[in-house]
Write a structure and sequence with these properties.
Blueprint (H helix, E strand, L loop, with lengths): L3 H4 L5 H9 L3 H17 L10 E2 L16 E12 L2 E9 L10 E2 L2 E3 L7 H13 L6 E6 L3 E2 L4 E10 L12 E8 H4 L6 E8 L2 E10 L2 E4 H14 L3
Parallel strand pairs: 1-11, 2-8
Antiparallel strand pairs: 2-3, 2-5, 3-4, 3-9, 6-8, 7-8, 10-11, 11-12
């Protein structure tokens, strides 16, 4: 069933803030439950769940990685357009050493001067796309996301008030674009895939293609987490 129409009238800042503040199963049940749900859905092959790590992994280290994760943060920007919220994305340049050309949220690793994840997300957003913090109202945060490259990413959700000017950092950002939030709230647009990282270790991931934009991996996983929070019964 498509959740987007029933949510349309409720999708305002207060609604999003309340949902982000409320306890939800994704935060308490963690990686094992998410893996089980994906396996039961038939969206991925039935590999050994003990060796199966998923896209939504709050607090769960990856198999074979016992080291501490590097703290990072991203901003999930919900732009308050007249027709409803849109989600703002960046496309990374092809010259970057990691995740080149991929679609992402503005953000990166936390620096010593960042007092918390919110400060880091706002700083990185200003550096990458020139969006000033005065246009952003922080609404809450999603579950931490553990990346295969060793980062523990905190997604910070913020409402962005137009009009605003953007200026992409040409070294990091090739493009900036928006997609209606309602598109991500329709489960018909969600895809589940899996990939073998090494013998016996499989990672599931989400993909949410939008036209010729292929949104997948960490970014799609965070969007699915947002979908779960906003559509929780």
């Amino acid at each position: 069933m498509n959740s987007a129409p029933s949510l349309k009238e409720n999708l305002n800042r207060d609604f999003v803030r309340r949902r982000l503040a409320a306890p939800n199963e994704a935060k308490s049940r963690g990686d094992a439950a998410t893996a089980a749900r994906l396996l039961q859905s038939g969206g991925v092959e039935a590999f050994d769940p003990a060796k199966f790590t998923t896209v939504l992994a709050p607090g769960t280290p990856l198999p074979g990685r016992d080291d501490a994760h590097i703290p990072a943060a991203v901003l999930v920007p919900l732009v308050a357009r007249a027709e409803g919220f849109t989600v703002l994305f960046t496309q990374r340049t092809a010259e970057l050493k990691s995740h080149a050309g991929q679609i992402s949220f503005p953000g990166g690793r936390l620096e010593p001067e960042d007092r918390d994840a919110v400060a880091g997300a706002l700083r990185e957003t200003a550096e990458e796309i020139g969006l000033d913090a005065s246009h952003i109202e922080i609404l809450g945060r999603l579950d931490p996301y553990m990346t295969v490259t060793g980062y523990e990413v905190t997604p910070i959700v913020g409402a962005v008030t137009p009009p605003f000017a953007l200026k992409a950092d040409p070294m990091e950002v090739a493009d900036i674009f928006e997609v209606p939030l309602a598109f991500f709230l329709d489960p018909a647009n969600h895809q589940r895939h899996s990939r073998t990282l090494s013998p016996g270790i499989v990672r599931a991931y989400y993909a949410i293609p939008y036209g010729d934009r292929y949104i997948w991996g960490a970014t799609a996983g965070m969007l699915i987490n947002l979908y779960e929070v906003l559509t929780a019964r």
